[in-house]
Amino acid sequence: MLSKMEKRGQFYIMAALIIVTGLFSLAGVSVWHKTSKEKGINWISRNFMLELEQATQYALYSEQDIFDVIENVSRNFYNYSKSELLVFYRHENKTKIINLLDEDIYVLAGRKEARVRRGQSLETRANELVVTMAREKIRKRIKIEEERIKFIFKQKLGNERYVMEGPRQENGWRMSK
How far apart are the C-alpha atoms of 31 and 27, rounded to whole Å? Predict the structure, then answer.
C-alpha cells in the first residue's frame, strides 16, 4: 500500500504532465494557425492571378480594351476579397498602374514622379518604374515587359500584414492570344 506522501508525489507528477501537454498543444496550434494564414494568402493571390488571366485572354480574343478589363477585374476582386492590390500591366507600349491599396503611392517613371491616390490609376509609357509605399516602408523597382502583368498584394489578417509580389516570374507572366 502506498503512503500518503507517495500519492501526493504521483499527483504532482500527473499535474505537471497535464500542464506540459497543454502547453505543447497550444504551441502546435499557433504554428498551424500561422501556416494556414500564409496558405490562405497564397491561395487568394493565385486565385486573383487565374481570374485576371482568364479575363485578359477573353479581352484579347474579343478585342475589348484590355486596360478596362484588367481594371474592372481588379476592382471586383478588391471588393470581394477585401485584399489590397497594386496592379501593373503593359500593352502596346503603355503601362497602366491601378492602385487599390489603402494608401497613396509614388511612382517614378523616368524622371517624372507621380502620386497615385488610392482607388485611382495612372498610365505611362515607361516600362521601368520605382514604386514607393511609405506606410509599408517599401521602395520597389519594377521592370515590366510588353504584354506582361505584375501585382503587389496586401492582406491584413488579425494584427499581421502580409505583402506579396506576384507572379513569381521575374518579368511578370505573359498574356497572349
Answer: 7
Helices (H), the chain: 4-62, 66-81
Q: State how beta strands 121-124 and 94-100 pair.
A: antiparallel
> pLDDT, tens digit, for every residue of 10-41?
777 777 777 767 666 655 544 444 445 556 66
Q: Which of 152, 149, 130 is nearest to 66 (CA)?
A: 149
Q: How far apart are CA 50 and CA 46, in angstroms?
A: 6
9-13, 59-63, 135-139: range with lowest mean pLDDT? 9-13
- In angstroms, rounded to a whole number, what is the distance separating the alpha carbons of residues 109 and 124? 7
Within 13 Å of residue 132, how many CA atoms lie on the same side as its CB? 8
The alpha carbon of 177 is separated from its chain's Cα centroid by a whole number of angstroms, namely 27
How many other C-beta atoms are found inside a 10 Å radius of the C-beta of residue 122? 17
Q: Are 36 and 43 in contact (CB under 8 A)?
A: no
What is the rounded CA–CA span in Å between residue 43 and residue 160?
17
Q: What's the pLDDT at 176?
A: 37
Burial class (CB in 10 A: 0-12, 13-18, 19+), 88: buried
